[in-house]
Structure prediction request, 709 residues.
Amino acid sequence: MMGLVRGADAWEEQEDAGPSPCIAELGGPKGVAYRPGAPDIEAERHNKKWKERNVTSQVSVKEIKQFLSDILEPRKLVKVINKRENRLEKMKSHHKLRMKGFQYKDLSKRHKNYLKEQAKKMFTDEGDQLFKMGMKILQQSKSQKQKAEAYILLAKAADMGHLKAMEKVADALLFGNSGMQNVPAAIQLYKSLAKEGSYKAQNALGFLSSYGIGMEYNQAKALIYYTFGSAGGSIMSQMILGYRYFSGINVLQDCEVALRYYKKVADYIADNLEKGGGIPVEKVRLAERPENLSSNSEILDWEIYQYYRFLAERGDVQIQVSLGQLHLMGRKGLAQDYYKALYYFLKAAKAGSANAMAFIGKMYLDGNDAAPQNNATAFKYFSMAARKGNAIGLHGLGLLYFYGKGVPVNYTEALKYFRKAAEKGWPNAQFQLGFMYYSGFGLWKDYKLAFKYFYLASQSGQPLAIYYLAEMYATGTGVLRSCRAAVELYKGVCELGHWAEKFLTAYFAYKDGDIDASLVQYALLAEMGYEVAQSNSAFILESKKAKVIEKAKVYPMALLLWNRAAIQGNAFARVKIGDYYYYGYGTKKDYQAAATHYSIAVDKHQSAQAMFNLAYMHEHGLGIAKDIHMARRLYDMAAQTSPDAHLPALFALLKMETLHLLQDVLFLNQFTTSWKWTESDHTLSLYWDVLAIVLIVAVLIVLLRNHVG
Prediction:
């Protein structure tokens, strides 16, 4: 049966022994005989035959899944690993080579090396070809069936020892791509890759160790894996270490060390942003909408999208521009589609939309399949939009003059257009102004003005403005140096990395009921410091639907994640920590600790739920002093803070006041010799309104019961 994992010894074996016998099982070359003096003839003949094969032949989804299940079965993987590790010793004991029934015992050392190199080259080339074909299909795939076919090719390339293919297959097995999650098999592959020095494998093993997913829960070992991964060049490991040192997670808190790690990642992201990458990804909070995941503002529901399309075809210009933007950037869960974007922009531009004209100019300036790069066309549309006073069009003209695209470089003209666009509040123009003052293009450097414009742009989330603000705080340029401010800003830039796309795949996996795949993806993002991912991972864990983490570890791990999210300012997470201490989930019951966390949520976040919970604890004296007046005040605050808390707070107050009244009536004079009716009347007069409400509620309940009966 087929094998995917290749240990360090197996790689040496491959170099010595030529093609693996497992290739035939994967549908690749089935063994090539060599003749002295003409070693390339059979190889060429085989390559021709291989190219003629339809490697993407149509097969049923069931057959594909069965095929993947067979080749990724963990026990068979181990057998293949052991088989390969023993082959080197076996080959050393044989000093003869059989070719078409002839036995050659005395081949020269040079000729044997030549044959080995030819076999190795053929083997490597075929693996590389399969990998490229698999990746091409995967990138262009629009259905699960196509993705599954792509992974079959990648699996074949992985079995031939292609490192990148092995990494891709291991990731698919870990994260459940195309429904093929198999954590034990993924771990086998990662361990094999780690021996070969794969930094991606080091990062993955660190992540798995930090959660105890398929491996022993070991934070010290996780830290070692991350350190090796970072040293090897893993951007994700560097980001994880930056977060750990900044937050003091299993290491001594050190802002300067965190700054160094985050800066490495931020430099990489900023470079991509300058090339037009790094589109923000929607982050759905599962805890806020567990009942109806379709009704959220982050992901556009399919029915709503169809309705928008209908409106756009009916001539709604605003909807046309909006759909064009969504398709241009690939937002709200829609795939990036330049043709659809251009289609809607052209319809809106024809109706006179300045925004649409400006976006068409941007498409031609950047260049894509639907609108090939054309500076003249970009200038035309930017000018049309600018004449209407459009900020995006003005900014576009500024870019053309700044970079000299289709026009001579003219910093004075660029500055003029950037200023006009910035005055209209366009954040990209504000950033460009800040950059000109920061770098001194066409004017004297002025760090104070640079800081001003970077700050203005950052308030709208302009990522490069945030990056340069971080640079200024990190170096003390134009501002007082602040390590903490720099790290927080760098962290915001780092979270725009391509890995953030897992927010969408994790969300859709959760929506489709693939809880384990969703959890693993959210957990990785949580490890990288994403607050939304931390709360989502904790939410999934406490639902007890995930199977990749042992039941005994569910609540402690959820508590850990809620705590990390709370430290980053999540009010809901802070209340959750209070709940865990109150009920003893994942920790011992501790009313005092629960009250402390509820108090933090009230003071910092004005959480209505925390107010209600704290009021209840004051009412009953749980962990804090019993204080009816404070309880009454907190119930009132909860009702005023949130409409959802109004009714629960009302009933809680009614209950509390009724019980308090009864205690006064029944026990006020328990140590006196006689009942003073005058005092009783006075007490009742004070609470006549509460008694009236209680009586009314009781009557209503009786009437409702009779009506139902």
